[in-house]
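Per reviewer request, we include the raw input and output of the structure prediction for the construct analysed in the revised manuscript.
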Amino acid sequence: MAFLNPANRRFLTAVSKLLYADPFLPDILVYEREALGGEAIEEEPIWSMTVSDPDRVRANIWRIVGRLEPLLKTLRTALAASGEVREADLILYEDGLLYYLYYRYYQQLVLSTFRQQGKEKSRWAFYREFRDEWSHFFQIAGVRFPTGHEPKHTFACYYQVVRAFHHIFEQIIGNSRPAARLRAAIWQSIFTHDIRRYRRTLFSRMSEFATLITGPSGTGKELVARSIALSRYVPFDEGRLSFEEDLTGLFFPLNIAALPGTLVESELFGHKRGSFTGAVQDKRGWLEACPPLGAVFLDEIGDLDPEIQVKLLRVIETRTFQALGESNAQSRHFQGKLIAATNRNLALAIRKGRFREDLYYRLCSDQIVTPSLRQQIDESPGVLRDLILFMARRVAGEEASVLAKETEEWIEKNLDPQYPWPGNYRELEQCVRNILIRKEYQTSRLARELTNRDVFAEARSGNLTANELLKRYCTLVYSQTRSYEETARRLGIDRRTVKAKVSPELLADLDTTKRAAGRGPT
């Protein structure tokens, strides 16, 4: 008799897909249906904290686990009796076990990771039970499994998956498609798109890949960086029943725009006593203080001085650096992961000679783009309500529902549906706080500033696409000339292009501003 009948093979194949799928992509719904058929429960396509209980595991998962347990016991008995099984079927058996054991110990993993207090060894004492169950299913006389899984490495991977899901799920909120894509992108930044390969070899090498996070200001780039940094692989020590590193305090954020260049260099690389005025003692920089499992986060890297860019490039290429005031013969080593972020258009900065092209290409092997609040709302209008409620819970506790309703009503009554939210999530939170305190939010100035902001200043910020830049510039010049021909002549482009690019909405706003200033449209 065959080890797997067609129905069991289909079921385990679907479980295998689920095991290695990105949990934040809708593919998991497809695989759950493949596994459960007509018994599958229809879940929300976008798994978000705002629409789900953060402690709830998808109902289909428990149904799958319920099917897996008796099947795996039966298959284990069959293996012990015969041992003659195709490699592909053995891999399906392995994957089914990995899925089953993860959820078998899921609650204990979560409690030990986030909630249980006490000694490190007592937190992970259940590993002994896990290892015994592992041995029962994997150590079968006469059977050699093709993948060579080890219990302590698998346990460490489980620990990493629990942390990664927690940090992404609770930090990156919103049930819009852009938010879902962002969560999925962070997951891939941690595990890559191929978790099998990650588990085999890449788990110990991810610090070699820098991560670059781009997106408008106020869109949560530091939250993304923190999620990645706190979700790294940590080896498990079977003898001590503990993990080899405590991840608290291993995230080193440095806001480059908030510090002068010399201080940025000192904070990053460290300095020797006497290397500059005020350097009264030696100082370790964060690159040296960061341990192998830590991460240094450079926020606003687009503002980094060119001289420091050269030194940072060397760190990425050679993993070595010198502190300020140190000779080239002396080298220090950076062993952690580098994460950088900016709201600037680095391609434009490269063209203007303000950012090194070679540094950019060293940073962008792993790139994540954070969506603006306006993008989220445009794709999923209902996300605004969810975000308001989430922020109301954070600032008002038990009064959250009432505050959220007041905020929604105020926004609906006082803001244009296309209000751009220039401050993104940070601005929305301030809106909620303002409604809590004063039951109003002063937005008119922000809206005018966004609409009428000097087009060149906006371009320098790096937040405009080429199409947006041309649209705004054409409209600005047309508001002065009131002639497509003259605007085309001044800009050196075709009249039809000007006519297509002039924005009636932006033109009306410019005219309103001129009238308010006593300067009617020319």
